[in-house]
Automatic annotation (TrEMBL):
Protein family (similarity comment): Belongs to the CcmH/CycL/Ccl2/NrfF family.
InterPro entries, A to Z: C-type_cytochrome_biogenesis, CcmH/CycL/Ccl2/NrfF_N, CcmH/CycL/NrfF/Ccl2_sf
TM region positions: 108-129
Protein name: Cytochrome c-type biogenesis protein
Top-level taxonomic group: Bacteria
Coiled coil: none
Single GO MF annotation: metal ion binding
Key words, A-Z: Heme, Iron, Membrane, Metal-binding, Signal, Transmembrane, Transmembrane helix
Role played: Possible subunit of a heme lyase.
Occurrences of domain CcmH/CycL/Ccl2/NrfF N-terminal (ranges): 32-148
Cellular component aspect of the GO annotation: plasma membrane
Pfam families, A to Z: CcmH
Amino acid sequence: MAAKISKIFLYLSTVIWLALVALPKLTLAEKVAVTRQEVLDVAKEIHPPGCTDSRTADYCQLATAYDVRGEIRDLLEQGMSKTQVIDQLVQKYGERILAAPTKEGFNLVPWILPAIAILIGSILVAFIIHRWAKKKPNHEEDQNLQPSYTEEDELKVNEELKNWL
């Protein structure tokens, strides 16, 4: 009976020892080494809350930018890719966190509108230039014009000039 208890104790202690050694490695996710440059590569595509429109998370110095960079680092350490990290941040903060709008749906407007405006402006300028070039002065009409004053008016002007000079 004592041998049976010692065998059970040996098996039980072995199982407990294996659980204690192996369990932490199974439960804790291994952290991936992340460089500062990797964090900044993701951060340059993110516009943190509170920063001016021209600043992305890689340059903004507000506390919210530091927090966002910390989140990016944590997500990258979990083994997420750049697109997964950006998707996670969009889920948390919404699309307003993106430095540039996505190129789909209604968000295509800011990408297409400048090209359309330039095209319309170019067509308008070409039309105006064509119209101006089409208008040529009509010299024949200028030759047929009669002076708006008569000889009598000219004599009066000459008399007045003599009085003043």
